[in-house]
């Protein structure tokens, strides 16, 4: 009983700390170039996965693609941008500045999105807390500079032993990821 109370207290403290930090954050993006407009054609090229879950980056990339489509962004299909990255060599595409002007011309875009996702789960036995932090960058290919950047953190919890745990965890991750990305893209033109 005492152990359960200690875990509950820890959970409450962590949740309050995160809520305070999220509430105190302004929703102004980290970077917005003056006069930023929607690109004519863009691609989501790379999402760094800084979590233990191998599928975290792919899921974030898919959700970002869906959310950008809802904002009427013209995007190269994910399979085409993935094929392009594989052709160059995935290890060679970590930052937008890593690619040459010729490579971007070959892809046929005037801007690219790069992202980073961090996913952590804290399991206290009865309550599991999932923390997600995302960072996204929009890179102008012609100007060769970052024109927009934003990040957001989200937290979600679920109680008890989910059955099966991976399915419940992935559902929670997807929902939390959608929250993160919808907040991030609010700051895009």
Describe this structure in words.
The chain is of the alpha+beta class and 189 residues long. The protein has a single domain, classed as Rossmann fold (3-Layer(aba) Sandwich). The chain is 41% helix and 28% strand. The protein has five helices and five strands; from the N terminus they run H-E-E-H-H-H-E-E-E-H. It has helices spanning 2-24, 56-70, 78-88, 101-107, 165-185, and strands spanning 31-32, 42-49, 111-123, 127-140, 145-159. The chain has a five-stranded mixed β-sheet with strand order 1-5-4-3-2, sandwiched between helices. Strand 3 and strand 4 form a beta hairpin. It is elongated. The model is unreliable at 20-26 (pLDDT under 50).
Radius of gyration: 18 Å
Order of helices and strands: HEEHHHEEEH
Tertiary shape: elongated
Q: What is the CATH level 1 assignment?
A: Alpha Beta
How many separate domains?
Answer: 1
Q: Compute the number of strand runs.
A: 5
* The CATH homology group name: ABC-type transport auxiliary lipoprotein component
Task: Give the neighbour order of strands across the main sheet.
Answer: 1-5-4-3-2
N→C terminal distance: 52 Å
The CATH architecture: 3-Layer(aba) Sandwich
User: DSSP helix count?
Assistant: 5
Fraction of residues in H or I helices: 40-55%
Most strands sheet: 5 strands, mixed
Characteristics of this structure?
189 residues, alpha+beta, Rossmann fold, 5-stranded mixed β-sheet, 5 helices, 5 strands, elongated
Structure, briefly:
With 189 residues, the protein is an alpha+beta fold. The chain has helices at residues 2-24, 56-70, 78-88, 101-107, 165-185, and strands spanning 31-32, 42-49, 111-123, 127-140, 145-159. The model is unreliable at 20-26 (pLDDT under 50).
């Amino acid at each position: 009983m005492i152990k359960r109370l200690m875990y509950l207290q820890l959970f409450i403290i962590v949740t309050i700390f995160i809520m305070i930090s999220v509430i105190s954050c302004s929703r102004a993006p980290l970077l917005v170039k003056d006069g930023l407009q929607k690109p004519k054609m863009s691609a989501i090229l790379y999402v760094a996965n800084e979590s233990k879950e191998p599928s975290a980056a792919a899921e974030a990339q898919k959700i970002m693609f869906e959310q950008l489509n809802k904002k009427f962004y013209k995007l190269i299909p994910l399979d085409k941008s993935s094929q392009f990255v594989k052709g160059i060599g995935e290890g060679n595409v970590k930052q937008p500045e890593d690619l040459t002007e010729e490579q971007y011309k070959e892809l046929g875009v005037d801007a690219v999105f790069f992202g980073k996702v961090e996913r952590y789960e804290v399991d206290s036995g009865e309550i599991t807390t999932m923390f997600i932090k995302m960072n996204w960058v929009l890179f102008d290919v012609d100007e060769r500079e970052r024109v927009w950047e934003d990040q957001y953190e989200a937290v979600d919890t679920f109680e008890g032993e989910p059955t099966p745990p991976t399915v419940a965890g992935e559902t929670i991750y997807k929902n939390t990821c959608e929250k993160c990305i919808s907040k991030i893209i609010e700051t895009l033109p």
